[in-house]
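The passage that follows is intended for readers who have already worked through the single-chain material. We present the inputs for a multi-component assembly, then the predicted structure in tokenized form, and finally a short commentary. You are encouraged to pause after the input and sketch how you expect the pieces to fit together before reading on.
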Amino acid sequence: MSCTVRIASPLRSYSAGAATLAARGSTLAEVLANLEQRCPGIRFRMIDEHDRIRPHMRLFVNTSEARELSAAVRPGDTVHVICALSGG
Amino acid sequence: MAGTLWIGTRKGLFALRADGARRNWKLAGPQFLGEIIHHVVQDPREPRVLLLASKTGHLGPTVFRSTDRGRSWREAARPPAFRTGQDGEEARAVQRVFWLTPGHRTERASWYAGSSPAGLFRSSDGGEHWEPVAGFNDHPMRPKWAAHGTPDGEFLHSILVDPRDPRHLYIAISIGGVFESSDAGGNWTPLNEGCAADFLPDPSVPFGHDPHCMVQHPGRPERLYQQNHCGIYRLDGPGRRWRRIGEAMPKKVGDIGFPIVLHPTDPDTAWVVPMDGRSVWPRTSVGGKPAVYGTRDGGASWRRLDRGLPHSQAWFTVLRQAMCTDTRERPGVYFGTTGGEVWASTNSGDSWRCLARHLPEIYSVSHAA
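Having made your guess, compare it with the prediction:
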């Protein structure tokens, strides 16, 4: 069973322009690992070397913001990758 | 062709290409529009290869590599990253890859990268995979060496590889000081004697200084020059004490700045761009009158070089990677400004002309043959 990942535009160079991708996993960590297999390099630009979500990235599972990669993801969920850019 | 000037900006990568006489320049780009480009460096061992350090406002830092002189780029498979720490350790994450340096000519695929917060990384495969240099990143003194970083984190830059010995390295940390390794980065020793650190409670400390840019002359590698937060310095090995050659600068101009560049064949010739380091540190051209200063005698004397530059109301800053020379016998000298202008001199600084305007804030200018 898979979820849907909505890819923010700054990351679409990794998804060949796709705005959504299907991914597998029961946690955000697993979903991102699955995504990384198909889109090499995408994870490190969202998540640092200590598995922390980067300061200007926000991850939502459906409408709830996930602060940790251990957040549960169920089949049919939508994971939103949002870029929280500030300044000019 | 006389080569290419690669212009790394806060909003993308541009290229200025010259004809053989360096008279006509054509601006190309942007590539990587919207990405922050901190450094672009050609591999002198393999001139078709370029490495580029980038990030965006929201995405993490990475490195791209070109093998066709910058026509196309491919991201590193493993960008620079600190090792995952043990429980209880400080969990440092690379915020930006700030500096790139090709390795020694005998180690053809080796590269070094410096980051903020201060970290040193090495690639042995041309920039595809990067590993932390544990001898520095995990050195027991590192938390003290890089203890006074600014809110953006301290920057590791000016990675120098001794052309005589691939194991002999220098690095500079702003703020932290200059450090030297004679065993390929296994261990490091502070090298700051003689440098001022007048912003610290104890200015006589062995480290904690603020080198802005350090360069080594390829033809005389025992000589280092340094543009520091507290002046311009020179060190002639095997001595280990820096001498403040900026004291020969006019007092009303001072010897504060970011970049320093050297003549490709004459180790006595260097250029700097002084900035205002008084009171609240505007870091703009002094008095709104930009000038390059050049020395032909190793810093014993300096000459103002401002013909062609604006004579008033020009308040730009030239950042540490934003100045370079080319490799001609009478070298071109180039710099980019925080106001998005690129200036060039093809007569060793005697006169200047503007090659490009209205670019984003310029972070780096580098020459590729």
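Commentary: The first helix of chain B runs from residue 134 to 137. Chain B touches chain A through 18 residues (CB under 8 Å). How closely did your sketch match?
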